[in-house]
Amino acid sequence: MILQESLVFIIKFKMTKPLILVTNDDGIEARGIKYLVSIMNNFGEVVVVAPDSPQSGMGHAITVGDKLSLVKSNLFGDIESYKCSGTPADCVKIAKHHILKNKKIDLIVSGINHGSNSSISVLYSGTMSAAIEGAIENIPSIGFSLCDYDPNAYLKHSKPFIKIVVENALKSGIPESIALNVNIPSISSEGIKGFKICKQANAVWEEKFDKRIDPYGREYFWMFGNLVNNDKGKDNDEWAIKNNYVSIVPCKFNLSSIKGTKYLKEKWKF
Questions:
Q1: Which of 45, 93, 125, 265 has the fewest CB atoms nearer than 10 Å to its CB?
Q2: What is the pLDDT of residues 75-86, one digit of tens each?
């Protein structure tokens, strides 16, 4: 049965080669996007549109009131690719509405990010904001992150897990208006145990600020901090990653709160 399903997928793939947009927030020259492109090239026609410089922590920022530059790149050989002066969300917008405006994008993949985008980090993440921008456009979208901040981190162990996620997305789809936040544990002797489809952990960054003085006597600050996990359950992404599972968290861009709406209607007076 599994063999039959795999053959059907291969036949459909050959008949209708999917169009896959690849982007990231670490910049077009990052190792993560190069590795992701090499994997996606086995799944369909790939187009790369990525920032021309690192854009980590940009969240869902877009460029307004300033120009965007878009320059063709030869970093990926024969694969059509562009570097953009904007944010990751800008890259998805300009790909959808300019570069590929007359084509149907079948899948958007963002990453591979160097560092975790689990729990609250999803709100700050340029990687995930690119994926969420795709979801806004009703395009199946996935953000991939490796939980290792080293720019030279080992990537090869992520390949089979990325392939499984992408194959499922192309074969079975992703619900409308949903982007997938996929975090892959770093390489370890224990190895990755599998997948956990889970929720975003109830965790926050506890920030600190290191005040310094520049040569002109002016104050400036470096921000740093630690992630404080207040979630004691086993159904969240932080637990999954800590226990060597690939976490998959479905994310939505509609931030409305049913609980908040109910409370205001009951308690507030106008």
A1: 265
A2: 999 999 999 999
